[in-house]
Amino acid sequence: MTNSLTLFSPSGVVLKAAPVRRAAKRLQKLGFEVSLDESALARFQRFAGDDDARLAALHRVAEAAPSVALATRGGYGLTRLLDRIDWPLLARSIERGTRWVGYSDVTALQLGLLAHTKAESWAGPLAIDDFGKETDDQLDEITPEVFREAMSGELEAVGFRTEAGFDGLEAKGVLWGGNLTVLSALLGTPHWPKVRGGILFLEDVNEHPYRVERLLLQLQQAGVLQAQKAILLGHFSDWKKSPLDRGYGLKQMVEAVRAVCVTPILTGLPFGHVPTKLCLPVGRKVQLVVDRRDVFVGWEHSHPHEHEHHPECGCEHAHGH
Amino acid sequence: MTNSLTLFSPSGVVLKAAPVRRAAKRLQKLGFEVSLDESALARFQRFAGDDDARLAALHRVAEAAPSVALATRGGYGLTRLLDRIDWPLLARSIERGTRWVGYSDVTALQLGLLAHTKAESWAGPLAIDDFGKETDDQLDEITPEVFREAMSGELEAVGFRTEAGFDGLEAKGVLWGGNLTVLSALLGTPHWPKVRGGILFLEDVNEHPYRVERLLLQLQQAGVLQAQKAILLGHFSDWKKSPLDRGYGLKQMVEAVRAVCVTPILTGLPFGHVPTKLCLPVGRKVQLVVDRRDVFVGWEHSHPHEHEHHPECGCEHAHGH
Asked: What are the alphabetically sorted keywords of the record (chains A, B) (predicted)?
């Protein structure tokens, strides 16, 4: 059984090749047969190639259907492609076993896939951000191992600590979400996945809490938050305080949203523009259980490659839990 | 006929009273009887009073129905109030003759009004930004005079220069718009005005062109841009270049949006987070005419106070053109 992994660049330009090459080496050590799509180092303005080139890259990777399609980095660029992506082609690659992975701008791809085809993808690392550091000791201790487990099909649950007050909470629903700004920019478009009764996870970077609040209140006023069974907040990192804040910050923002939203909003999800990030199956039906302050999000193993198309591969880890 | 003007603070906290007092004096010199609503200098975290206080201020000003209701500043805050605003009460103040004025965060109020009641308001200056400077020579030469004309009912058209390529363009439709980020945050909510065949104006501040583009493409993908007869772009100011840009900037952004949008997109509108700003009647039916590079946006005088409810007031400027 191959364990092929293709690096591709659907969004922002990769300024230097070295981090991509370092990421490729580290991913090889992790057990993947790594190849670089020709898009990976392409350049056009602030994009990894012009729109046609990036669109072609997406479709080329989908046709090749590697085990893992991992984006090199985020930035901005997928929004431009959404109206032109061949979603069924991408969904067929997923039926053939491809796991599409990334976060940040890749949220647009993941949610578009969910909206158009209900196909599953993975919110998880990006090659440069999480595997491209100069030295090994700059790598996160958890992220690569969780990624390896998720890509092999071993990962069937993730856990984290949240605030007190949610002990006993249980919910089942479709897990979806990603970067809040990118997700919100799909609202009202054909690329918005109309998930009801889901479990929505969100993160963002460089956004002041009042900007996060504005988007969360938009989702609230649009009926999105109330339609979910739970909201999981990851990290909202790298925002700058202002003299205008006067005691307003992330905590006060979450309180303000909780005051108008009946859906439980849990903080503490290890996900976002931070070194330690879980892999989360976007579009998968999951079960959430809170025991005191411990949150478990579990799902049934259902890698379509193994179960639907090639049951004979009999990979042990698929049923090892 | 009184020319009363009330300063109120529906959004961000006013840290210092001095700019508000200077603005009040200058507005008095301009011919207004200025009063300060008790909200004007209220403080709660980064807001001008807590949500209940700011909501009460809006309703109090609406009940008093001054000739002009001018916000002190923008920032963030109206999003929190949208679900609780008594829109018919605000619309009644407008029927009684009140012109609600502001830009930036005030966009949420103006578009909510339009969505819920079709009532007209004015995109125009904010007290602190445009009348609160320390010395008179820091004031813009155009903004105060256009404001005075608009508030007196004299202003029946505005003009500006745009790029070549739109000579002969003519369009009639409802004028609407404001701050792009604030406007976009209404999409999908009950506060979104579903204007079709309109003339949409947009501005923003501190937003990199790729972020402006993402929101414009959201409006495009949501069918909003195509449903308009023209898009007028004001200033997109104070964004920081990045080493990642590689030749991508505002110009390239506009080109990218034009490539997918059939609606004419005209740049050069004097509006935004810049000193020189026009007053624009939000919700008013206007006529747009382009002669070579000169754009004219004109409307019929229709101050409801004078024409619908008190025709006997017979203010001369109303028919002076």
From this structure: Carboxypeptidase, Hydrolase, Protease, Serine protease
Q: What are the sequence ranges of the domains in chain A?
A: 4-154, 157-299
Backbone angles phi, psi at A34, to 5 degrees: -95, 135
| Catalytic residue list contains B317 | no
Domain B4-149 has CATH 3.40.50.20: no
Q: The domain A4-154 belongs to what CATH superfamily?
A: Murein tetrapeptidase LD-carboxypeptidase, N-terminal domain (3.40.50.10740)
Neighbours of B139 (CB within 10 A): 15
- For residue A46, give the nearest of B189, B214, B245 by CB distance: B245
Cβ-nearest to A245 among B46, B224, B247? B46
User: To 10 degrees, what angle do helices B51-64 and B87-95 make?
Assistant: 30
Helices within B106-203 (DSSP H only)? 107-117, 127-131, 143-152, 180-184
Q: What is the ipTM of this complex?
A: 0.93
Q: Which residues of B touch A (CB under 8 A)?
A: 12-13, 15, 43, 45-47, 75-76, 79-80, 82-83, 181-182, 184-191, 210-211, 213-215, 217-218, 221-222, 224, 242-248, 252, 256, 260
Taking an 8 Å cut-off on Cβ atoms, the answer to whether A222 and B189 are in contact is yes
The C-alpha of B68 sits at a distance from chain A's nearest C-alpha, in angstroms, of 27
Residue by residue, DSSP assigns A213-226 as: HHHHHHHHHTTTTT
Q: Which CATH superfamily is domain B157-299 in?
A: LD-carboxypeptidase A C-terminal domain-like (3.50.30.60)
